[in-house]
Amino acid sequence: MNPLVSIVIPAYNHEQYVETAVLSALTQTYKHIEILLLNDGSTDSTGAVCEDLAMQHRSIRYLSHSNMGAHSTINKGIQEASGQFIAVLNSDDAYYPDKIERCVTLADKNNALQLISGNVKFVDANGVCHVNGVCMDWQTRGHAFFDLSGLLPLSVLNENFVTTTSNMFFTKALWKNVGGFQPLRYCHDLDFLMAAYRSGAYLYDKDTFHIMYRVHGTNTIKEDLAKVRVEIAAVIAASLVADNMHLLRAFDVENANHFLLFLKNKKLSNLIILLMVYYLSAGSREAYYQKIYSDEIKTICGSLLE
Q: Which CATH fold topology does 5-216 show?
């Protein structure tokens, strides 16, 4: 098996990191790749760095456009991609050298697999690995819930230890089937995972590191914690409405207790229930997410987060 893998790199204002990200893609042990490097309207020198890299390496296809946001940029890159498989790499992260080879090998062993993710190493702005702190505590909690429940979709909703789109390797067919990445600023990765888990076979390669996730002062997730919580609640609500027992596998006492623990951990039950009702009236998943920050919904969500 020697499928073409398209690595989609959305780049935005990461002049100090983007070269490291691109080089981690170029130096993969698996060589049948194409790289689509997309500058999403950066206002620093990210575009110039990307252009220079594309001139040096023929396997890079460089695209530039005005700022559209991460989800639109990723979707555009995937639309342009020729590969059977897609791997996303954010411009401040980096791959382990054998990530793509590992994923292709796993997919070759199980032809039904449509989505693969692995373990994440957290590094700081200088590339130094975290050994403790908030990120490590969060990852530990997430893995502990997964070890307890064995329910991957519910565990990722509980604490998204997949962490980022950089950790996703999936078929282009899956991306088409789930409708691509939705218009969310903070949780388009989580929503895509939930839709993918409902739609195809998946694997979490827990014991193997796939990526290095860079923690720095301008991580998007740090912008507005209230909006992040609203988007998390929105994804949970959509997942529950569309679930068809994918979250629990079976409705029994043990799994019900895992679900109740999940609700207790999130502390968003009232907002989730309200957004479930809103989802049912929205008509479609895309319409639901497009309206999640309407003035009316913001007012309602804000009062429930106080």
A: Spore Coat Polysaccharide Biosynthesis Protein SpsA; Chain A (3.90.550)
Q: Is the pTM of this model over 0.85?
A: yes
pLDDT in tens, 157-206: 999 999 999 999 999 999 999 999 999 989 999 999 999 999 988 999 99
Instruction: Sketch the domain layout of the chain as residue ranges.
Output: 5-216, 230-305
Sheet holding 201-214, edge to edge: 60-65, 33-40, 5-11, 85-88, 169-171, 113-123, 201-214, 94-95
- Residue 258 and residue 148: Cα distance in Å, rounded? 8
Judged by phi (left if over 0) then psi (alpha if -120 to 50, else beta), residue 249 lies in left
